[in-house]
């Protein structure tokens, strides 16, 4: 699409055929339609983004602004198996780039019906995943035996004398 039209700028020499990075176009309703904001990898520079947008989508980026947003400093890495409360951790920084384009881009309207994308299945899987992760947290690992009610009932019967004690290996009926 853009290969037949000559670029209005000097094209970079780095050829990218199958990119190993992810660009995320952010929905920014407060920006005018000639601006687009992207989440980009930390090692991507303005010239790389300009070349990529030109070659992949035929978009002429007239100006590009970038900034690196540092994450908050907090105690304990959330991905650790065992919590370590006095260890300080800073998450990886986020790089954002704002591109000014010569032609406006308008976001399409959000669909009313999400059934072609299986949103219900995705939501159910996300809920199941959240419940599983919550159950695996250190404070929730052991909540007592699963048959707590039946054990309490057996103990009550033993104390009242309604049932006799048998060792677990004893299979004889009395």
Quaternary structure state of the chains depicted: single chain
Output the CATH class name of the domain at 19-76 and 84-109.
Alpha Beta
What gross morphology would you assign? elongated
- Estimate percent helicity: 10-25%
What gyration radius follows from the Cα positions, in whole Å? 30 Å
Give the name of the CATH superfamily of the domain at 19-76 and 84-109.
RRM (RNA recognition motif) domain
Query: What is the distance, rounded to the nearest whole angstrom, between the alpha carbons of the first and last residues?
Result: 87 Å
In spatial order, strands of the major sheet run 1-2-6-3
Q: So how many helices?
A: 3
Strand/helix succession: EEHEEEEHH
**Major sheet characteristics:** 4 strands, antiparallel
CATH topology of the domain at 19-76 and 84-109, anyone? Answer: Alpha-Beta Plaits
CATH architecture identity of the domain at 19-76 and 84-109: 2-Layer Sandwich
| Number of beta strands | 6
Could you explain the architecture of this structure?
- This protein has helices at 46-57, 119-135, 148-160; strands at 24-26, 35-40, 61-69, 73-75, 88-90, 94-101.
- The chain is α+β, with helices and mostly antiparallel strands.
- The chain has a four-stranded antiparallel sheet with strand order 1-2-6-3, with helices on one face. The protein has a two-stranded antiparallel ribbon with strand order 4-5.
- Strand 1 and strand 2 (35-40) form a beta hairpin.
- The termini are far apart.
- The model has no long low-confidence stretch (mean pLDDT 85).
- One of its GO terms (cellular component) is mitochondrial large ribosomal subunit.
- This is Large ribosomal subunit protein uL23m.
- Keywords: Ribonucleoprotein, Ribosomal protein.
């Amino acid at each position: 699409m853009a290969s037949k039209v000559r670029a209005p700028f000097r094209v970079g020499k780095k050829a990218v055929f199958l990119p190993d990075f992810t660009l995320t176009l952010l929905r920014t309703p407060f920006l005018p339609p000639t601006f687009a904001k992207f989440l980009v990898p930390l090692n991507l520079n303005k010239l790389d983004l300009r070349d990529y947008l030109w070659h992949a989508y035929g978009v002429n980026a007239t100006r590009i602004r970038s900034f690196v947003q540092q994450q908050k400093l907090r105690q304990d890495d959330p991905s650790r198996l065992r919590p370590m409360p006095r260890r300080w951790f800073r998450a990886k920084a986020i790089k954002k780039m704002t591109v000014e384009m010569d032609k406006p881009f308008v976001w399409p309207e959000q669909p009313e019906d999400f059934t072609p994308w299986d949103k219900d299945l995705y939501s159910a899987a996300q809920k199941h995943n959240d419940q599983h992760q919550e159950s695996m947290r250190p404070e929730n690992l052991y909540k007592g035996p699963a048959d707590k009610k039946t054990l309490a009932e057996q103990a009550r019967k033993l104390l009242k004398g309604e049932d006799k004690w048998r060792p677990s290996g004893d299979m004889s009926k009395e």
